[in-house]
Amino acid sequence: MKLLPLFLRQPMETVYERRLATTLVGLPRPQHIGIMLDGNRRWAREAGHDDVREGYRAGGAKVVEFLEWCTAADIAHVTLFMLSDDNLGRPSEQLGPLIEIIEATVRDISAAGRPWEVQVIGSLDLLPGDSARVLKEAAAETTGRGGTKVDVAVGYGGRREIVDAVKRAFRQHIGAGGDPLDLIDKFDVDDISRHLYSPTGENTDFIIRTSGEQRLSGFLLWQSAYAEMQWLDCYWPAFRRIDFLRALRSYAGRQRRFGK
Fold this sequence. Notes:
The chain is an alpha/beta fold. It contains nine helices and six strands; from the N terminus they run αβααβαβαβαααββα.
């Protein structure tokens, strides 16, 4: 079957989007979505760009669109996986441009007039130069805005987050004059949940990964114990609202038993 020409396809997609959105009214929807923005470099190469930074730029621009879709769908909390702690080992000529685009994206979604409350999570002390300061300052401008809560995971690793949560729990207990041996006896899952990078997001309902890869790669390991997963073949810069609505439709059709 031949593909429809663009001037026909776009109006038809718009009609289909509206129908999809209508079918979701009243159906269960995730309160917290974690999304892995994968495939930027592959998108750039397949689009004919010699510079993979074009993929990062297109991916950064897609973030604003995606958050607007989430706001329209009444999603309360979104976690964007933009850079893992493993990615920090990339050569500087690759890492530098990527971090610059992440900084620009965080400034964009944190700008005056945006409706989102932004927090940057991860091992920010591992970032090069002034990146941690730039990201924190941008996010701080959004404090108290309300609306969709947006966590931007940068230099993030799920295993590292769990280790850091345990350390924080013990530091807090010892700092209050407690005996660490007492905490060992009483330590439970809530002690970790309270000390995650983003404690309000301890339970993730739905994780989406673009690019066709089917693994978590360390993303929200603690929070995703009972999360539903959706693996999408499209690259992140090519992710459409139709893909998002279809993912929400898939989520709504699942029976969540939480191990029961």
